[in-house]
Write a structure and sequence with these properties.
Layout: E1 2-7, H1 11-23, E2 27-33, H2 39-45, E3 50-54, H3 63-73, E4 78-83, H4 90-96, E5 101-104, H5 109-120, E6 134-135, E7 138-139, H6 145-155, H7 160-167, H8 171-185, H9 190-199
Parallel strand pairs: 1-2, 1-3, 3-4, 4-5
Antiparallel strand pairs: 6-7
Helix pairs in contact: 1-5, 6-8, 6-9, 7-8
Length: 207
């Protein structure tokens, strides 16, 4: 049997996943915890084959950061990142730390078990893109990667000069991108833009 560690702070989601595991003939629940900071300890205490890891867990602990640590010392453990957030960078971050799959909660727990099967068979299973979110006059698919970089920097309270230094571009290039973003969205200023993307969880800087 495949030992599964579930890291999820939503009781409803956790129960749904546990029910799917209980019905399975392949998987058995090793443990179910709310805080990603405890995932590494849980892995050290027993034989975990697969981790189903939420991005945003209890006490604002990042599942992505926990996954990266676990993969460093035990890359054989399979990790599937789970989220209900459309945050643009999550897929990229999950791939960067070596996670084996990615699942949006809106797809349902049955679909999650299909992802588990594929991952345990050696596949890397990722959605092609994030769910589309309406931002002003545009949807999220209309923004370039560089524009998302700029928006993320703005959401962290960075000034134009700081953004330019972080992204290795000129302040004029930053202004050019921001002008394009505001034209696409119809917002009058960056404060309106940042408020919208954070409210809709398209950008979550702390994770």
């Amino acid at each position: 049997m495949i030992q599964v560690l579930v890291v999820e702070d939503s009781r409803i989601t956790r129960d749904a996943i546990e029910n799917q595991i209980a019905k399975s003939e392949k998987y058995i629940l090793y443990a179910s915890i709310e805080n990603a900071a405890n995932a590494e300890i849980a892995c050290l205490r027993g034989c975990v084959d697969l981790i189903l890891m939420d991005v945003c867990t209890a006490d604002e602990e990042s599942g992505l950061k926990a996954a990266a640590k676990i993969k460093q010392y035990n890359p054989k453990i399979k990790i599937i990142i789970m989220t209900s957030m459309p945050e643009h960078s999550f897929i990229q971050k999950a791939k960067a730390c070596g996670c084996n799959g990615f699942w949006y909660k809106e797809y349902g727990s049955t679909a999650l078990m299909e992802v588990c099967d594929r991952v345990m068979n050696g596949e890397y299973v990722y959605p092609e893109d994030t769910p589309m979110i309406r931002i002003g006059y545009s949807n999220s698919a209309e923004f370039t990667s560089r524009e998302f970089d700029i928006i993320r920097e703005l959401a962290q309270g960075r000034k134009y000069e700081e953004i330019a230094a972080d992204l290795d571009i000129t302040p004029n290039t930053v202004k050019y991108h921001i002008k394009n973003i505001l034209q696409k969205t119809g917002y009058q200023n960056t404060l309106q833009l940042v408020a919208e993307v954070v409210e809709k969880r398209l950008i979550l800087p702390k994770y």
